[in-house]
Amino acid sequence: MLELVFAPVDKWIAWSDKDIIDATMGELAKLFPDEIAADQSKAKILKYHVKTPRYSLSVYKTLPTCEPCRPSQRSPINNFYMAGDFMKEKYLTSMEGAVLSGKLCAKAIVQDCEELALKSKDVGKSSSPGAMTFLCAN
């Protein structure tokens, strides 16, 4: 099963289902030439549903002016970390973005814990990073 999202939809909204399927198969054939051919001589579409939003505003579009507003996983509040598809990462408002944000959040936590351990005066003792707060939302 393969599910795709086309965004921004401005280009696609007026296209017929057939035109969207044909364009999709062409792109997939470029990505997976051993498995997919645009003419469906390899993998075949058994069932499909093209769902187009009623208004093009229902699909997010990245605007350069909005990128600085997206927070990083490490907040300015000490020991407060955030993860979610709205965070600063390369996939805007998607499942992939939420997963990547979670990984980046975990990486920030590990980095901060390692830094705290290095700063600890008790080299021979285990150091506790203190209380940490996490916000995970999607």
From TrEMBL:
It comes from the Eukaryota. SUPFAM superfamilies: FAD/NAD(P)-binding domain. Residues 3-109 form the Amine oxidase domain. InterPro entries: Amino_oxidase (IPR002937), FAD/NAD-bd_sf (IPR036188), Zeta_carotene_desat/Oxidored (IPR050464). This is Amine oxidase domain-containing protein. It comes from Sphagnum jensenii.
